[in-house]
Amino acid sequence: MQKKEQKTQQLSEEKIFNSPPPLIPDQGLHVIHAFYKVDAIRISSLSPQQKKDTTNLFESEIHAIRSAPDTQLFLWSCANPKADFGFMLLTPDLHFADSSAKRLIRSLALTSPQLIIGYLSVTELSEYTTTESEFAQTLQNQEGLQPDSQVFQQKMAEFKTRMSKYERDRLYPRLPDWPVACFYPMGKLRIPGQNWFSLPFEKRKEFMRGHGNVGRKYSGRVLQLITGSTGLDDMEWAVTLFAKSTTDIKAIVYEMRFDPASALYADFGEFFIGLSLSPHQLLARLGLDCSS
Ligand code: 76R
After folding, report:
1. Which terminus has fewer CB within 10 Å in the chain: N or C?
2. List of domains in the chain
3. 3 state DSSP class of 26
4. CA atoms of 24 and 108, how far apart (whole Å)
5. From ligand 1's centre to the CA of 115, what distance in Å?
6. Catalytic positions
7. Angle at 173 between CA 119 and CA 93, to 5 degrees
8. For residue 38, how far is its CA from the centre of ligand 1 (angstroms)?
9. What is the pLDDT of residues 58-116, one digit of tens each?
10. How deeply is 75 buried, as exposed, middle or buried, from its count of CB atoms within 10 A (0-12, 13-18, 19+)?
11. Which atom of ligand 1 is nearest the CA belonging to 268?
12. Rounded to the nearest 10 degrees, how much is the dihedral formed by the CA atoms of 195, 201, 207, 209?
């Protein structure tokens, strides 16, 4: 083989090896949640220079990830002593999500991070939202509006605008960085006599309507992000709740326990409470304060 050809082949192999084609879902974003425990004894034995290098590397990785388009990265100190810190990364390309999550953890290698939970999911639309024809039926049956009337047409147009914003918000959420986050994997029971997945669609929709009504009472206090993980990870959804206080998190999860969709069918994984911190604050909390 000619030298030039050899070089071209080598270069293209390198390109394939380093950056495989992006893996982007048909719609929405990939989401990785991960929580780790660090080795406090090892951290306390690090030299100021090692702490400084770790801080610089970690901060530059965070900056690189946050600079990528359509990407959000949340950093949390974990208040449950079972983990020390965690993150949630939302981004379209799974290769980028995967390599970013690995680079982030490698940058903290000197703290010996041990994975406590890692979870993969995707943002998704709900199956149970009101369809256009259902809304049109309601306008006719409950409000007595004629489909050819101007009011009917206007209400339909408003509905479509509302729904397209709602769908965009579910698939491509711009999440607030509120002080407290709560993450837990969740499924629905599949046991004989209590199998969510063998219920007729209409029944499930009725349950979810009730669920939504409870949830909406917390509007402005709790923001939910429900991402789907069937076939991607152990349970069916990742639940991420953002709030301004642990009181609101506890209240909503408690009230949901009485709501039939959860009371009869919910199956929960482990719960994690994250406290939002800047990269610098987080490392200081882990004992990597360079001045110490
Ligand atoms: O997206 C929407 O707002 C529409 C209504 C809605 C759906 C479809 C909704 C509203 N949720 C939906 C789907 Mn929810 N949610 C949870 C939990 O701990 C527990 O018992 C349950 C955990 C909380 C706290 C919560 C909060 N939700 C889902 C699904 C998917 C079900 C499926 O597809 O089969 C799960 C697993 C789930 C779980 N939910 C809301 C909330 C809140 C606060 C709302 C109101 C959002 C708002 O409109 O402001």
Report:
1. N
2. 24-123+277-285 (3.30.70.1030)
3. coil
4. 28
5. 27
6. 184
7. 55
8. 33
9. 999 999 999 999 999 999 999 999 999 999 999 999 999 999 999 999 999 999 999 99
10. buried
11. 18
12. 160
